[in-house]
Specification:
Domain NIF system FeS cluster assembly NifU N-terminal: 10-129
CATH class: Alpha Beta
Radius of gyration: 16 Å
Shape: globular
Family: Belongs to the NifU family.
Protein name: Iron-sulfur cluster assembly scaffold protein for SUF system, SufE2
Organism: Loigolactobacillus rennini DSM 20253
Order of helices and strands: HEEEHHHEH
CATH architecture: Alpha-Beta Complex
InterPro entries: NIF_FeS_clus_asmbl_NifU_N (IPR002871)
Structural class: alpha+beta
Strand order of the largest sheet: 3-2-1-4
Length: 162
């Protein structure tokens, strides 16, 4: 019965993050942004990041998606705020390994609330939903995958002002 209560608590945290997402919206001064889509279910997510002094000084997300993708994005923004890009990229790696169940003894404490999404590994169809925001963050920080999906805003602004 204790496990059932814990499962209910985890569900409540996920539902709360989905219904009342943290850092939802747009940034006034984003330095990096990206939009990613999950073609499997139609989730669309935009992530905007502001970097200052080699740290994520602000972050926001917007878009439409299922409960899992929206909750995961909300938890991700809480977890990476104030981190360096290298720290955030490490968190993306840990989250990815956790969500696909690769590392049963993985230390997920660096993920904060997002660690409760480890149960998604039991539902392969939902893995892409849970990882969408994390992949978007990683692509935004590394300036995308070379396919032009990520936009480093400062480069575009410099070109536009010439």
């Amino acid at each position: 019965m204790a496990l059932s209560k814990l499962d209910n608590l985890y569900r409540q945290v996920i539902l709360d993050h989905s219904a009342h997402p943290h850092h939802h919206g747009h940034l006034q001064q984003a330095t990096n942004q990206i939009e990613l889509r999950n073609p499997t279910c139609g989730d669309v997510l935009q992530v905007e990041v502001a970097l200052a002094d080699n740290k994520i000084s602000d972050i926001a997300f917007s878009g439409d998606g299922c409960t899992i993708s929206q909750a995961s994005a909300s938890m991700m923004t809480d977890a990476v705020l104030g981190k360096t890009p290298a720290e955030a990229e490490e968190m993306v790696q840990v989250f990815s390994e956790m969500i696909i169940g690769d590392q049963p003894k993985l230390d997920t404490t660096i993920l904060g609330d997002a660690a409760i999404l480890n149960g998604v590994a039991k539902f392969p169809a939902r893995i892409k939903c849970a990882t969408l925001a994390w992949k978007a963050l990683n692509n935004a920080l590394t300036n995308g995958d070379g396919k032009g999906q990520a936009h480093l805003l400062s480069q575009h602004q410099d070109r536009d002002s010439e």
